[in-house]
Design a protein that fits this description.
The complex is a heterodimer of chains A (about 525) and B (about 400).
Chain A: E1 8-11, H1 15-26, E2 31-34, E3 46-50, E4 53-56, H2 67-72, E5 82-83, E6 88-91, E7 97-100, H3 104-112, H4 116-140, H5 152-167, H6 170-179, H7 184-189, H8 195-206, H9 218-226, E8 239-240, H10 245-257, E9 261-263, E10 268-274, E11 277-283, E12 288-290, E13 293-296, H11 300-306, H12 315-323, E14 330-337, E15 356-358, H13 363-374, E16 383-387, E17 402-409, H14 422-437, H15 443-446, E18 447-453, H16 455-462, E19 498-500, H17 514-526
Parallel strand pairs in A: 1-2, 1-13, 2-9, 6-15, 13-19
Antiparallel strand pairs in A: 3-4, 5-8, 6-7, 10-11, 11-12, 14-17, 14-18, 16-17
Helix pairs in contact in A: 1-10, 1-17, 3-4, 8-9
Chain B: H1 21-27, E1 32-36, E2 39-44, H2 48-57, E3 59-63, E4 68-73, H3 77-84, E5 97-103, E6 109-119, E7 122-127, H4 132-138, E8 145-148, E9 154-159, H5 163-169, E10 183-188, E11 191-196, E12 205-210, H6 215-225, E13 231-233, H7 236-246, H8 289-298, E14 302-309, E15 319-321, E16 329-339, E17 344-352, E18 361-370, E19 373-384
Parallel strand pairs in B: 3-13
Antiparallel strand pairs in B: 1-2, 3-9, 4-7, 4-8, 5-6, 6-7, 9-12, 10-11, 11-12, 14-17, 14-19, 15-16, 15-18, 16-17, 18-19
Helix pairs in contact in B: 2-7
The chains are: A alpha/beta (about 525), B alpha+beta (about 400).
Bound molecules: flavin-adenine dinucleotide (FAD).
Chain lengths: ~525, ~400
């Protein structure tokens, strides 16, 4: 590396690594981002794997990215545009369907087709979800307080949390505490009577999670997915125009504009440690790069178990990192289509086919799908979150043709029958394609190309350990001051000069940017620099 | 029902049409419709002023069909309702109507509405918001059936000083003997109609309830027979002016249902809304009683009051201060208007204790638009008694034969 001395190295050009780098560069630090792949973005990427089609290969909906970050880093100026989509639906095995519409009256009349009571309970349900989101929102762009540190900052922060909890009033405190630990199925039972309504809303409680809808803790996961809806700002939920890679591309452009550098094809082999301090990195080809600060956006396991020698770390810490739950449970298909598939269950002209579509119509079916995962195989009747973004974003596919994104829950990282191979991967892909074809007679005949990704593939390509999409599960024992490791939840690590800035840290996974922004602020605070929100 | 065309499915046309829709559309000169409770309804027919003055001078028709209606029936109906609402339902006689509020466990208002006692064990509850979920949850343990009947009943509000005269023209024998909050069924000229002496205008007026099949006949008869009495249809804007003068609260304007609020502290108790007179602590247990007892003991921290404000510019959304220098913010205005009838600049506002007693003097921060140049004025405001307008004719039985 030529030129002036570096202030900081960021390992990994996933969106969080880029966000952290942007904040540091804007504070005047000389920053270098090192990315193993020959493209930036990590799990927020757009790639062309089939002629003239753009896939959002991993993440596909931009719902969590904090508006504060978009604004502070001037992402719109650097090309980011988020476009909303309207609603979604679940197709039922008996040929019926439940649709979700933006318009309140259309939605009420739609849910009423299944249960009048649920149609009206929906308002109470969204109110309660929003109340919980509102409680959590101020915690997103902050270091979680450490309840054991007794430093004034932590005590202040805990007091603030306690104060806000107290202001909720006793009933809502109970609700909040219960909510954080209960199962999505139990939570939904408190509002709805109709199976299809419950099944539809339960979907987001299992996405990316190695738990079933009846497992305690899944109500929180459901909330995590709603977090983007809480901002009253229009245009915070939808597709990133040009696919999720547009998020990373705008971050990269913003970083370059403030003087940062990105090197792709530059995977690190290990982090250099000298006297309990991170002092730089060694690339796969042996090149050594030094800097007084290293921020790792790799997940906590990859950072500490694969990139640092165990002898440099406290033994108990290493043990806790080993125990961090990061089980892979999701697969993804990206499909190029020669035309628009027909779904007879949805009335022609209903806009719900432009949103997220599902085919799991009972919670029981979801739980059975989870059972298959526990048995070490992919779900025979998987839960799918299927969208056709090209209906809204014209840049994703040639005119008249369509790009379909299919997120699949559950798919194991390791099969009971042995390692994943090309044949097994194809069989997994076929299960998903057959599932869709059951609801769309012309679907199969339209397929031009399909990218099939198992958790094993996701690990290899993105570096997410076991293919866990959130860099670690979002359960209470791994959230807030417990994320990733109690005592190390404030982006700092046992090594001086080494920080974590990826989704393994608070507030967790998804294309949110908050871990990266919070980590950068922790660095700046330690440097004694002014920190802005 | 003879609508011009079949309505489209809900995802293409989310709003329903009431049985009066064709008539309303034909008479609406401005094509100014707004959504109300899932229906499309008229905001203004001709001009707000003409419509408003018809309420205070002649007779007006307002399509009430979207008002959410529930049938509450069964041997346990009275006990159920007494548990639900804060008023003593046991005192409500057959063929009488009562204005009620109901609360959640924390004593915060879920909704307000009118309760009709149609028979020994049969009631109708008219509400602003749909809430079958809450009503059914509250029904567990009571021998009662609660069903929504909004679509089964068409309704028109006939309001104004000549409204009784119009009904007499229809041949409703003895309608003039109907007392305020009384209801009765009539049959005349092939029309079966239930008439209640109720309304949202604070003036002489009635509400007429028919089967949807009879809706057009009712409308046409009223419009023809009422012609000489100056009858005209009105939209929501004119009605809103009359209801502010009458001092009535509008949900989602003057308060938000506890079923909807997200922020701690934005729900309101009946005591805060100045509706303490609707709360009967002596009648036995009702939902929210414990919390309301506690609040009564402490005294509410703020209250909804009426204001009379200097100048003639409506103090829409104004913040209120204890002193002209605007140092201490003590409340805000939720509804405001220049009252053409009272010739006063009136408002409904939520105001902190102790500034709630009639005669208290506060300052309102009023914004004036002078040909797109905005000016800010601190105007003196006085807390006054509600209603602002309460003519004797609203109570007189029989009403004067004008
Ligand atoms: C299939 C799938 C679907 C998803 N869907 C959504 C969605 O719709 N909406 C949403 O909000 N979230 C979604 N997510 C989650 C979200 O994409 C991730 O949580 C988020 O992108 C993680 O970002 P990150 O920057 O923390 O980590 P990553 O994106 O994992 O970034 C880490 C980076 O480090 C690089 N790296 C790894 N090892 C090395 C090394 N040795 N040297 C140098 N670089 C290295 C990687 O290549 C990668 O670029 C999805 C994830 C997946 C996998």
């Amino acid at each position: 590396m030529s030129g002036a001395k570096l202030d900081a190295i960021v390992v990994g050009a996933g969106h969080n690594g880029l966000v952290a780098a942007c904040y540091l560069a804007r504070a005047g630090l000389k920053v270098l981002v090192l990315e193993r792949n020959d493209y930036v973005g990590g799990a927020a990427v757009s790639r062309q794997l089939y002629e003239n089609f753009t896939y959002s290969n991993c993440s596909y909906v931009c719902s969590l990215l904090r508006p504060e970050i978009m604004r502070a880093l001037e992402l719109p100026k650097h090309g980011l545009q988020i476009i909303p989509y309207d609603g979604g639906c679940t197709m039922m095995s008996d040929g019926g369907h439940l649709a979700i519409y933006d318009n309140h009256d259309a939605l009420r009349r739609e849910i009423s087709r299944h249960s009048q009571r649920d149609a009206e309970a929906y308002d109470r349900y969204s109110r309660d979800v929003m109340r919980q989101c509102k409680f959590i929102k101020p915690l997103l762009l902050r270091e979680p307080p450490d309840p054991a540190s007794f430093r004034p900052r932590d005590i202040r922060s805990l007091l603030d949390l306690g104060f806000r909890l107290n202001r909720l009033g006793s009933e809502r405190i109970y609700d909040t505490l219960r909510f954080w630990t209960m199962s999505a199925a139990d939570f939904l039972d408190e509002y709805f009577e109709s199976e299809i309504v419950k099944a539809h809303f339960a979907g987001s409680s299992i996405i990316g999670t190695a738990l079933g809808p009846r497992s305690p803790g899944t109500a929180y996961v459901l909330l995590h997915h709603y977090m983007g809806e809480i901002d009253d700002t229009v245009g915070a939920w939808g597709f990133a125009r040009g696919g999720m890679g547009a998020v990373s591309a705008s971050l990269a452009a913003s970083l370059r504009a403030s003087g940062g550098t990105i090197r792709t094809d530059a995977g690190i082999d290990r982090i250099l440690v000298h006297g309990g301090r991170a002092v730089g990195v060694v690339l796969h080809d042996g090149e050594e790069i030094r800097a007084p600060l290293v921020l790792s956006s790799m997940d906590v396991k990859r950072t500490f178990l694969e990139s640092i020698e165990a002898k440099e770390l406290p033994g108990e810490f290493v043990q806790q990192v080993r125990n961090f739950k990061i089980r892979g449970s999701s697969g993804k298909l990206n499909i190029a289509l020669d035309g628009l598939p027909v779904f007879p269950a949805i009335p022609a002209g209903a806009p719900c086919s432009r949103g997220d579509m599902h085919v799991t119509d009972t919670i029981e079916m979801m739980e059975r799908a989870y059972d298959d995962w526990k048995d070490g195989t992919w779900s025979r009747a998987p839960y799918i979150d299927m969208l056709i973004p090209s209906q809204i974003d014209p840049t994703m596919a040639p005119d008249g043709k369509h790009y379909m994104s299919v997120f699949v829950q559950y798919c194991p990282y390791e099969l009971a029958s042995g390692p994943w191979d090309a044949q097994q991967r194809k069989a997994f892909g076929d299960t998903v394609i057959d599932t869709i074809a059951n609801h769309s007679p012309n679907f199969k005949s339209l397929i031009l190309h399909a990218e099939v990704r198992t958790p094993w593939d996701i690990e290899r390509e993105v570096g997410l350990t076991e293919g866990n999409i959130f860099q670690g599960e979002l359960t209470m024992d791994q959230l807030l001051f417990n994320r990733p490791i109690p005592g190390y939840a404030q982006y700092r690590t046992p090594l001086d000069g080494l920080y974590l800035c990826g989704s393994s840290t608070h507030p967790g996974g998804g294309v949110m940017g908050a871990p990266g922004a919070n980590a950068a602020r922790a660095v700046l605070r330690d440097l004694g620099r002014a920190v802005t929100q | 029902m003879s609508n011009e065309r079949e309505p489209l499915p809900h995802y293409q046309e989310p709003l329903l049409q009431t049985p009066f829709h064709d008539r309303a559309r034909a008479l609406s000169q401005l094509d100014s419709f707004i959504p109300w409770s899932g229906y499309t309804t008229v905001d203004v027919f001709t001009t707000v002023e003409q419509e408003y003055f018809a309420i205070r001078n002649a007779a007006t028709l307002y399509d009430l069909t979207p008002m959410v209606k529930y049938r509450v029936a069964g041997p346990g109906a009275q006990r159920y309702l007494n548990r639900l609402v804060t008023r003593d339902v046991a005192k409500l006689k057959v063929n009488r109507v009562s204005y009620c509020v109901w609360c959640d466990d924390s004593g915060h208002v879920i909704d307000d509405g009118t309760l009709f006692r149609l028979g020994e064990d049969e009631y109708r509850l008219c509400t602003a918001e749909r809430q079958i979920d809450w009503l059914l949850d509250s029904a567990s343990g009571f021998d009662v059936a609660v069903t929504e009947v909004t679509e089964q009943i068409a309704a028109l509000a006939l309001q104004g000083p000549t409204s009784c005269a119009v009904l007499k023209q229809l041949g409703l024998a003895g309608v003039e003997r109907l007392k305020p909050f009384e209801l009765r069924g009539f049959e005349a000229g092939g029309l079966r109609v239930t008439v209640s002496r109720t309304g949202f205008t604070g003036d002489l007026g009635y509400e007429l309830w028919v089967a949807p099949e009879d809706a057009i006949l009712l409308w046409d008869t009223l419009m023809t027979r009422g012609k000489s009495r100056g009858i005209r249809p009105i939209g929501s804007r004119a009605l809103n002016l009359a209801r502010i003068e009458a001092g009535f609260l509008a949900p989602n304007v003057d308060f938000v249902s506890a079923e909807r609020t997200l922020r701690v502290g934005s729900s309101r108790s009946p005591l805060e809304l100045g509706l303490g007179w609707l709360v009967d602590f002596e009648k036995g247990h009702f939902t929210g009683r414990r919390a309301l007892l506690e609040e009564r003991r402490r005294g509410p921290r703020r209250q909804l009051v009426g204001l009379d404000i200097d100048g003639n510019k409506p103090a829409v959304n104004a913040l209120l201060y204890a002193e002209r220098s605007a140092r201490n913010e003590i409340g805000s205005v939720s509804s405001a208007m220049w009252s053409p009838t009272c010739k006063r600049n009136i408002a409904l506002a939520m105001v902190d204790v102790p500034h709630i007693t009639p005669g208290s003097s506060l300052w309102a921060d009023v914004y004036l638009n002078r040909e797109l140049v905005w000016e800010r004025r601190m105007c003196r405001a006085r807390v006054v008694e509600r209603p602002f307008f309460a003519p004797d004719r609203r109570r007189a039985t029989p009403p004067a034969d004008v």
